[in-house]
Queue: 2 jobs
Job 1
Amino acid sequence: MITIDSQRLWHSLMELAELGAYDDTATGLVGVNRQSLTDADAAGRRLLIGWMRDAGLDVTVDELGNIFGLREGLEPALAPVVIGSHIDSVATAGAFDGCLGVLGGLEVVRSLNDADARTRRPLVVAAWTEEEGIRFGTDMLGSAVAAGRLTLEYAYDLVDADGLRLGDELVRIGFKGDRPVRLDPPYAYVECHIEQGPVLAGQGFAVGVVTGVQSISWQHVTLHGRAAHAGTTPTELRVDAGLAAAQVVVHLREMVASGKYGQLRATVGRLQTFPGVPSVVPDRAELTVDLRNPDDALMAAAEADLAAYLEALPVLRVDTRRMARTTMVPFDPKIQEAIATTADELGIPTMRLMSGAGHDAQELAAITPTAMVFVRGQYDGISHNPREYSTPEDCAAGVTVLANTAVRLASS
Amino acid sequence: MITIDSQRLWHSLMELAELGAYDDTATGLVGVNRQSLTDADAAGRRLLIGWMRDAGLDVTVDELGNIFGLREGLEPALAPVVIGSHIDSVATAGAFDGCLGVLGGLEVVRSLNDADARTRRPLVVAAWTEEEGIRFGTDMLGSAVAAGRLTLEYAYDLVDADGLRLGDELVRIGFKGDRPVRLDPPYAYVECHIEQGPVLAGQGFAVGVVTGVQSISWQHVTLHGRAAHAGTTPTELRVDAGLAAAQVVVHLREMVASGKYGQLRATVGRLQTFPGVPSVVPDRAELTVDLRNPDDALMAAAEADLAAYLEALPVLRVDTRRMARTTMVPFDPKIQEAIATTADELGIPTMRLMSGAGHDAQELAAITPTAMVFVRGQYDGISHNPREYSTPEDCAAGVTVLANTAVRLASS
């Protein structure tokens, strides 16, 4: 059995968290804002690559900035076992989302080095570009292109809120590599990640075996009304795009509360009215709708409900743009079993659960047997928030399971 | 009786509207965006001053950029009759709001010149700074400081959305004048303005005599929630500032619909969530609330209802900031009578009505007998919108009433 250095893992997590650190006024804590392809992300990438090289890994960067660290196997010709995640973050993040999987993978290699252990198959530690999708609007972008669901051209042409093109930003930070972005199918892919939810904490498990990822639907909605004077325009003559947007937000919450759509979660993360001045009835409102559901049929029904509601709104026009849409992705039973058996042998009790968040693993699942290891989060598993926290012990338990699962798979 | 040149008036309106003109995508029309103290506003001010000087007016600019054009009277020592309005606009404006009152005042002087007519009292045409209040957040600003309700220091220290200080912008565009901003009480103030509502059109009158201005309440509200992951945070554990803001918007509409608050109008012109990304539950939402009511008691009751609703919202904290608050302002009965009698003698039928919008006249009413002349608007009187329109005939009728009312008052 491989034993990891939990202090080394923890210190790496904390050191990476200093890149993009900011004072979060809402929580009074220090948060992390390391959005994809920013200078902070570039600094994080350089720190990671330095650590990879120190660990003896052969580092390559592909055309989309995905980073790969190769540890050669006894039989180099065999397909590798890939372990990875992402180091980009949302604007109000903590230290663990994504980073635990990448630095956990690094810790696996460091521990194998300490033990002078070789594996039959090569081991690859991967860090995927723009997993969060908050800067360029498409999440799991790097892994989706690597696995073939999206094209490189699509990714390059995405623009952020300031109109900056992803392809240009990739060059600007010096991470447009030569390695072809399309990934040869690995032997297996295993990703360790914080749960970002309350299930493991509620059930009393430090580690979970992930059975799959729920369906995700992202839409950008623009409502068109008519600008009018706030003081004189009679209420019945108004076409208020802002009011309509507010009604959509309230309706989504009612959809969730109705129970008709199972375990549906609905979030309007962005809502803005235009022209956005006190004395003018808004002529335009823009909002994003994030729907999640572990059941594809119930997700489709929820989307149909929303579409009908938008259709019936008393506005001049409704424009909807699909930002992301994934069906429920089941993980490979054999990889799940490998994780569960390994944890048993380590004396670490686990439970099975589905992921509420999207992960790079769901993209890799399209080309290779895949599963994930979840680590318990504190404070109801709050995430995408500086309060996000997992204990050093729980992180170590998850990465120990990751390490020994990787060795098991790399030996077969 | 003074006869005005309606074509000259119309051409001046259309020429001024070219400054700040933009293509409005929502309406497909050319709109006007001439916000206070912008370069477009400065260009408008220079055009106006040129016209004033061509008409023989003695032009002075005060410390807040308010513009005055003096036409000397037979008895220069007497307090003048002031006629005016504003030429700044909202971001999505038409050609008439404010401009009709200023260029109407100019047309009064031009017509008196054509007729070689002198008045006993001096006549002053005034253009007030930042009436709309959309750039610096306080409407009727120039007239409020001139009439003594607000201080010059308060005005100078206001900042726009980009953090630009009003006092600095005033210097930048070259309109910080030497004339003391505090205005010596005139003999009377009369303002001609488009109705910006459907009443005159509905009742079939081209011109209305305004009895007063309804109460106006502007508040800026910030709701504080907790950022959380959109995919994993259970609905019952969320503190969603965006949902709370949407509920406020819907509640305000319900307050209006309830009828409990008389002729209350409620508008949320600005609503924005933060951090504003699809996968993060908003930790903050900012909105503006614009309430109007012709009845002070019902306005107070509506504000109390809103305050109680905000108090009960399931958020971490609610911050409210008062942006503007005026009680109902009744206009002077004698000035109303002078307008009505003059219109009768001109054979122009009028009706009395209250203003739904705030106007500089309500500030002047604090220091001098004041009333307003309203001109019918087309398309339900839509305003703060490029569709805003009054016919050349209706504009001429209103300015003819303004001219002869001014002469009547200036002769007494």
Job 2
Amino acid sequence: MSCGEDTGTHTHKWVYAFGDGRADGHAGMKELLGGKGANLAEMSRLGLPVPPGFTISTEVCTWFYRHDRRYPDTLVAEVEAALGAIEQSLGARFGDRDLPLLVSVRSGARASMPGMMDTVLNLGINDATVEGLIRRSGDPRFAYDSYRRFLQMYGNVVLNLDHHLFEDILEAYKHGRGVTLDTELGVDDWHAVVGRYQSMITDRLGTPFPQDPRAQLWGAIGAVFGSWMNQRAITYRRLHDIPEDWGTAVTVQAMVFGNMGEDCATGVAFTRSPATGENVFYGEYLVNAQGEDVVAGIRTPQSLTVAGKGDGAGDKPAMEETMPAVYRELAEIRCRLERHYRDMQDIEFTVQQGRLFILQTRNGKRTAAAALKIAVDLAAEGVVTQEEALGRLEPTALDQLLHPTLDPKATKTVIGRGLPASPGASAGRIVFTADVAEKSAERGEQVILCRVETSPEDIHGMHAAAGILTTRGGMTSHAAVVARGMGRTCVVGASGLRIDHRAGVLMAGAHHLAEGDVITLDGSSGEVMLGEVPTIAPALTGDFATLMGWADHARRLVVRTNAETPQDAATARKFGAEGIGLCRTEHMFFDADRIVAVREMIIADTPEERRAALAKIAPMQTRDFADLFRIMAGFPVTIRLLDPPLHEFLPHSEAEIAEVADAAGVDPQCVHQRAIQLAEANPMLGHRGCRLGITFPEIYETQARAIFRAAAEVDRETGATVMPEIMIPLAATRRELEVLKALIDRVAAEEREATGRTVPYLVGTMIELPRAALRAAELAEVAEFFSFGTNDLTQTTFGISRDDSASFLPDYQRLGIVARDPFVTLDTDGVGELLSIAVARGRAVRPDLKIGICGEHGGDPASIRFCESIGLDYVSCSPFRVPIARLAAAQAVQDGTGDRREDR
Amino acid sequence: MSCGEDTGTHTHKWVYAFGDGRADGHAGMKELLGGKGANLAEMSRLGLPVPPGFTISTEVCTWFYRHDRRYPDTLVAEVEAALGAIEQSLGARFGDRDLPLLVSVRSGARASMPGMMDTVLNLGINDATVEGLIRRSGDPRFAYDSYRRFLQMYGNVVLNLDHHLFEDILEAYKHGRGVTLDTELGVDDWHAVVGRYQSMITDRLGTPFPQDPRAQLWGAIGAVFGSWMNQRAITYRRLHDIPEDWGTAVTVQAMVFGNMGEDCATGVAFTRSPATGENVFYGEYLVNAQGEDVVAGIRTPQSLTVAGKGDGAGDKPAMEETMPAVYRELAEIRCRLERHYRDMQDIEFTVQQGRLFILQTRNGKRTAAAALKIAVDLAAEGVVTQEEALGRLEPTALDQLLHPTLDPKATKTVIGRGLPASPGASAGRIVFTADVAEKSAERGEQVILCRVETSPEDIHGMHAAAGILTTRGGMTSHAAVVARGMGRTCVVGASGLRIDHRAGVLMAGAHHLAEGDVITLDGSSGEVMLGEVPTIAPALTGDFATLMGWADHARRLVVRTNAETPQDAATARKFGAEGIGLCRTEHMFFDADRIVAVREMIIADTPEERRAALAKIAPMQTRDFADLFRIMAGFPVTIRLLDPPLHEFLPHSEAEIAEVADAAGVDPQCVHQRAIQLAEANPMLGHRGCRLGITFPEIYETQARAIFRAAAEVDRETGATVMPEIMIPLAATRRELEVLKALIDRVAAEEREATGRTVPYLVGTMIELPRAALRAAELAEVAEFFSFGTNDLTQTTFGISRDDSASFLPDYQRLGIVARDPFVTLDTDGVGELLSIAVARGRAVRPDLKIGICGEHGGDPASIRFCESIGLDYVSCSPFRVPIARLAAAQAVQDGTGDRREDR
């Protein structure tokens, strides 16, 4: 319904009442009533005992601004009528000195909007009604405290008087009385402060604080509408593309009090256990208390149910015992709410003189384990469909279920904090080098590898360690990526810690820890703790398998894994991976038994020398690939040919140099010189990817041959279908692919000839450069598949090195320059447009082009949603992310437009 | 005209004759006659004495392939008729043993196409006609040598016999005769070789070599048409998008001989001097000689003109004296050709028994100085318009005119070769460090700074040196970019040389040069030479100014310069720059008198410390800007705020560290630690550009303040209009610009308040990241101008670091993966699309958005053409490139679509 210029003169409905089990509105009327108003109407319509009230619609806001800040003629009468209904329902009266009605006034836009007036509570108090409040509550201190709070809140948000004006008065008063805490002030003190507040208001504004509750009410309504056009709200709307003509609604609701005697109470209830998900009624309450008393924790709350007694809540009487009738009503509401909202609810309630009021209900927060159980149970109970159940789980929460977690009951001494790079909780002895990590692990010790940062040469140590801690690097630093891939606990960029690995010291403030000292890492929170903190093992219950089955049924995207070791590949299969989307061959090159040969290859000056070194590596590569093909039999395996800058493999220490020189039969000085020659200013943009294949074709030739030999071997051995997909990294031009595909095809033909076996294979490319995305049509003329390498594509599109971003990305997030780390969640605006371009142009040329993603984003739910929306065929992620991706892919199908989940 | 299926049965013209001052075709018929056929027809039609001949049209080729490799019925008759006309013209007959006619047969596609049959010469020789040839030439050895050459050529290209078959026979024969050189063989030897060739052909093919000249002719015609469909030609067409149905033509032309006696001659003529451009007839000839004798240089040729005698050509009689009638005819043709082709011509001619034949005419190659003079003269003579004259100059050739060049007469010993990074020729003493360079220069010595590569800390040494030589890096390495900016001679990436700067040795093969030894660099060829090679100083004649004036009149693009020093800015003004498009403030930071303060700023741990250091720099920056504003009064000056990774400024040596620690009053160990902390893995993608401004706002604030103070100062002092354009580098998001523009606007307001002067200014951004180009609409909401930083944009779009590209770009160019170094000439397909996108999206939001380019490409003609085509407002380039850019911008307007020049 739109609000025309002339509706003010017609009999138009401006005010929507709710309460007493009825309402003019419902949950679907957010546009007219705002989020809060629509929800209150919905609860009331459900028959819940919501404190009565009414909502002035957003149309009034629009009318207000179109008519020089006046209200429609009929508004006052409608408000009066609605107010009358509240008074009748509660038997109280606005401004009555015996039974005064107090109300709250809240703004309510369609979406919550910072910068707008939020809330005025206790409106209706004045010098007369405060007496009624005293009489009703029997607590004069509470009444005057409420009065001065109301003055302060109203003075600030409605009368625009600065906070400090009130604070100064209070401080001066306390100073005069020689006290420092508010709690030391009594009723007379608050009475006095109320007086001083009123004087100050009169001084400042030239008119006294309005004693007339109706004047207070219209003041608050005007303040809400006025705040729609204040500078902060305008800026916020501009930044978030919220149209100005949406307007705000104003909701006025009766205040109810849980502190008016022993027949009053206030509490919180969950319809199921938020910790375990069990279908039990769970909650706490306090007799004769305000809501904030529950939160403040000054008094220990009591259990709602007899069954819940003793479980943290002490064994004081349950509400089930003290207020059986109210309890029964609440228990009945519990069922009704779950049926209606079809999810576990978190309910706030107040009992005012024996009468139950529901203040709020919302989907309850829960642990990952509870979320899983509740979703599966609700589907089993027929409350939600399987599809809906899938939507109830935050995919990333699954991570908690796959790794050990800290025992929540344990005490812990946090000595540092970094980024939660790879989940799980692990304790172990501090070691500072990969070699020591490996040796300690061989002795059966749990160790935590502590480094400033890690490099590919630390891989064996990372594998040996229970956890990895670095003081530098971000969520996609080497340590983070590798640790997630291996399922190792990892905290990175703990910049408050300092590691002096020569001295063998980890400094954390006053703590100086040495090698062998024990610490615990929480990879889900980023915390570093002293000593061993107990952990809880993961229990993959039947619910997990059930939900995953539903997800597999629902999703369209295939989920593959990024893996190069047999262990990782096997783990990923266990987690449901349908093939390998990225096997990084260079990761196979760092093993101790081959790094010397690899280094020999790199320092080679001629193709012949290089071939000689490669000949040593070739049989190992063949074995590597054969292992993967066996594990992934029947599924495709995408093998990326050598990608990283060669200098990553260079020997550094004198000993390493000597070893390589010895193996290659050259002078160590030569090796040293060559290492210097191969050093690069910006290795990420250097001599890597297919540039290696172009300049040193013998490397790719050896790798291709290893692939075809391994495939033929596994085929011969097992008869299983082996489907290698050979991926050329970092291509920017069609010609690179032409040259390298010709090489691969030649090797394939030679091996077909030699083995007599035809291995079906594809040759494709990674799209990881902006130019590749733009020229996708050309590339697709040669490439049979695309795989988006979104790590590199993000680096080049943003011009940000993920290894170096830690020095400014935190500031960027703080200032709202980037909402989320673009290396974690795909930047759909920039990088995403390149993906869309590449998909469209690639498929225009080759309609059956297989397209996937194998960057870190392949395991991020928001990014997976985007992948679904642009029609990719598969996502590939690290093994421990596979279940997350399966669920996220299922949700992405349901989301359709891909927008819904963001609203939750 | 298209060739239908049935035209073979109609009377259709297939053959186009030329000769005797007439022709069936003309230059515009390339599609039908191929390039060669059309040109010969044109010359003939002009009345030039072209050896007569005919062209079989491309339609025959098409017909041939549509009819199972048969010819149209009427073709034989048409060829016979055309052959008859040739015979009549020359009084010779095909196959006649007294006066034999010999012909050449050539393929002729629209564009020259490698992989196709090229040429068969001397067709018509057989055992009988060879005798006539002997009689006519009086030179039996020549006749039999021609015969065996014909057999070899025909055998290879028509009969498909491998080269080595002929070579083996010749080698065996020479071995038997005990000689090694062809010149040692006499007439009987060649006669014998002819016999052995014929036997081999008979053995191989089972039939003898065709003695019938008509059989030879049709064999050659068939070979040309057949070669259109050979594999190499097909591949070439595919790579160059040449449609298969274009077909090829076949041109048959009479051979003429300049070696049939003393009334015969052969030579080359230029219509003007190719060295100076002077309007004099210039050329050489040899009496009784073949064309190849002129080329081979065995005999010294004689001058055409009396005036030209003694000028290198010795003082043997000029043709003007020996063959006055022929000379007069040639001199008359000279004028006719220049008038017709409207450019200086390079003419090949032969005199056969007193009769002049013109074999070829084409636009003559010339030096840059000649090109300039000829273009201006031709326009003055009314032969071409000013606009055409502008199109006659290769803009980059102007570079030669602005720098000293090597004396072409000097002898030189080349000891190494690198990339020609910055033109000019300079000799000087070898120095290995910037400090020594500076000290030597202070003593008045010319030095060449030799480094593996340069860094910003070498700037003072580069300034002091006459030339810079590096052994690493590409055309846009630091050394190359800075040297071009300064106008210093520079050769980079001379990878054959080795510099051991500790030992103080430059190794070039066997040469070991020490500090103080003299070398010469040629920055236009990339050569490194031993000792001092004499050079010629540039002379900017009036012609240069004239042509530049025409260019300025014709161009639309504004040309600015990249400059930060007063010297560079003044040079650029002298060369016609209309403002500064890029002032790199960081270049101002390396001066000895401020680097310590800059380093102090960088190692600062807190904003306060940073401000303290900045306070020392601020007055210097203000002076810098004021100097530039004075020089560029009335023109805009774009100042880029600090851009490079901070660690570029870090102190390295102990002495530097101590100096900084001292200035900052901290422990050297601190400085050392901070330096390690600031090191980055990929500095190009690191903490730089506006990321510095975001994290350390005090830096940009100081710079902005210096700009406004300097502008106000110059305004007050001179009343000149100062137009600063403040450029925010490396933005990827709108929000970065919002935050930093707010900062700049605040400083502007504060300074306006303080100085009472309003400085008009713009705030804009560099578009140098793919994301910035894609999100241009958002950025343009904040930015008032865009400047394309195509160096960085190329780096990120391609994912190639220009500092590291030398290890693979040469291979890439060799394999045709990139046609041109994308850091020199804009990659229009990839990077160019991003530019187009940014222009369109930016202007959609802000129609008056000022857009320019300030990467190295701003001085590259092909890139400037692209800038014109997408509607940029200006280009900005280094000072010495400004004239090039002015000319290129003028040509770009004329080109319209921007394609024409590529065809030249």
